[in-house]
Amino acid sequence: MPSDRGDEERTALEAHLARWGLRHVLSDADYFAWQRKTLSAADLNQLNRQVERKRSGDPRDEIAFYDLTAQPHILPVLYSQRYEYYCGIGWRVAARINSANTVLDVGCGVGILTTFYARRYPEKQFVGIDRSPASIAAARQQAERLGLTNVCFHCEDVETAPQAASYDLIVATHALVQAEQDPGIPSRSWQTFERARDSRLQADFEQRTGVGVRLDRLTGLLSPGGRCIAFEKTRQLARRVPFQRALAARGWQLAEQPELIRYRLVEEVADDGPFYVMQNDGEGSRAWDESPDPDEGQPFDAGALHGRPRDPDAPLYENHWPSAQQAWERLVDRTVMNECTRQEADGRQFHVELGTISAGAYLYCANTFDQRQLVIVAPARVAVLEGYYQEIVAAP
After folding, report:
1. Architecture per CATH, 82-279
2. Domains of the chain: which residue ranges?
3. pTM
4. CA geometry: angle at 82 spanning 61 and 119, to 5°?
5. What are the residues whose beta carbons fall under 8 Å from the beta carbon of 142, sequence distance 6 or more?
């Protein structure tokens, strides 16, 4: 995809977001000042209550939340939190519509991106569906204001919507894996990132998150040779692997290398995705990758551990990324002082280990939901790690 095409789409998208009243706010202080100025105390209290109810996982509470956020005076403020999300996803999807003549946007919400796609491709037909009545009403109103005649919106749930049509392209972003708090499927043990191919665990994941029935419906809605774009909150490997397996089991193949996308919700950094472009004809497909993402952990150099740190209180080495496991495995001269492996209440297996090496002491933590942490300190700071170890072991 040419970079100038991407730049053109991004520029057009920013102008489109402005027409919705969205702002690119860069600091929490500025955002909350705008929020307090625009929304009443009653509005904020109601939003907070709905956020708490939404976490219950009941679809009715989720619909009520999005109905509330679709109100005209609330919409620009609340949806501006996702400004960079729209920028990151919108131009990527628009640049891939290409030869598709019919496009379905699943979980379109208030239609911010759906109307953008329709404006960019007036010769193509777009359909947006969402189960929030107020969101669909807002989408229809904005489409009318923009003079769009090539897009329509329906208040439907993809799980139950009639399959009376087929589409060349289906877009599903933050619409398939609804259980945001679901931990996914654990690895075989705390020492590996590999997951067993257990049909029972996979079926349970698909049922808990609702992804199974949604993918079944989308598979039936896609035209032969069509494509699907998906972007979900599945960056964590424990969720990404079963999501990918659910896609592969239904014949979905990668048309492009998945792309990792990082964006901000005002100041908070969100790592979602990957951004998948898939097809169901199997031509030119790429293999699904179940290995951890490339991380930002500090490269491990055993020789550098023996140098004197600039700050005597600083660790000789610290890594909170998956690559911490590789660094721990390279501690060939380690002597374990204390270790504990236990099964947590949420089902994860957890391991913590305190030991010594020639350069000092180390503390290593790992669990079956892909979290890894390694800290190495100079000999004089062994007592600090011992204290951390006792706190971790004593924690419920």
Report:
1. 3-Layer(aba) Sandwich (3.40)
2. 82-279, 302-394
3. 0.91
4. 105
5. 20, 110, 111, 115
